[in-house]
């Protein structure tokens, strides 16, 4: 499992594509919601529109995807300036909620989806407020075409196929954003540093190991003081806090996705006692491990 797989795994990312928009004429929709454990995206199949985030307008055209990791409030409309909010007509069509504005041939066809994740994870803390990408002439375009073909079918297993494609789309979005240098903070940014990359990989792969600063500095081929300084600067937290975060994110995953008892999980992620682990977990998540498993 490479670092992107591992971080996605720890963040418990789960994707859905569940809304199909068909809009004609002049229109505007306001998205008020903001969330710490859900990001949304808009994928333009045909046509164009404008998205306004804060006071910044973005022109979206065919093949564009706009991803808001924290689902920040925003406007989407046919024009760059603010207009009257119009509520679309909604109906179910297969697995999609179809939202329609206007009676003529749609000027815009757009799919909207959601990525759910565990809040405050290392991966999501690395992402910017938004990612605006054009997928035309990229490897992601083939994935989008496969999704569009599947969306037009009404066959058994549609939901599972499309949700699985959404999970793959999430990875492709991150790959593309990293390749374009759009990630400028957190662990994803630090992993591009040749000195810190081997350190971060080892911590992600073996968080239960009894790591010492001197070992990590040796892996980075740096002095102890310089390593601590660079790690803090690039990752945004000291090495000890990062290791604790990896251990607790892994524990959260195991609590949700395994039948292991709390003590077994505590030992697996590097804690020597259930009491010590439970205290650290509650400090991070404001809930005990046992209650976290139930919610």
UniProtKB/TrEMBL annotation:
<keyword id="KW-0238">DNA-binding</keyword>
<keyword id="KW-0805">Transcription regulation</keyword>
<dbReference type="InterPro" id="IPR018060">
    <property type="entry name" value="HTH_AraC"/>
</dbReference>
<dbReference type="InterPro" id="IPR037923">
    <property type="entry name" value="HTH-like"/>
</dbReference>
<keyword id="KW-0010">Activator</keyword>
<dbReference type="GO" id="GO:0003700">
    <property type="term" value="F:DNA-binding transcription factor activity"/>
</dbReference>
<dbReference type="Pfam" id="PF12833">
    <property type="entry name" value="HTH_18"/>
</dbReference>
<keyword id="KW-0804">Transcription</keyword>
<feature type="domain" description="HTH araC/xylS-type">
    <location>
        <begin position="197"/>
        <end position="295"/>
    </location>
</feature>
<keyword id="KW-0963">Cytoplasm</keyword>
<dbReference type="InterPro" id="IPR020449">
    <property type="entry name" value="Tscrpt_reg_AraC-type_HTH"/>
</dbReference>
<dbReference type="InterPro" id="IPR050204">
    <property type="entry name" value="AraC_XylS_family_regulators"/>
</dbReference>
<dbReference type="InterPro" id="IPR009057">
    <property type="entry name" value="Homeodomain-like_sf"/>
</dbReference>
<dbReference type="InterPro" id="IPR014710">
    <property type="entry name" value="RmlC-like_jellyroll"/>
</dbReference>
<protein>
    <submittedName>
        <fullName>AraC family transcriptional regulator</fullName>
    </submittedName>
</protein>
<dbReference type="InterPro" id="IPR032783">
    <property type="entry name" value="AraC_lig"/>
</dbReference>
<dbReference type="GO" id="GO:0043565">
    <property type="term" value="F:sequence-specific DNA binding"/>
</dbReference>
<dbReference type="Pfam" id="PF12852">
    <property type="entry name" value="Cupin_6"/>
</dbReference>
<dbReference type="InterPro" id="IPR018062">
    <property type="entry name" value="HTH_AraC-typ_CS"/>
</dbReference>
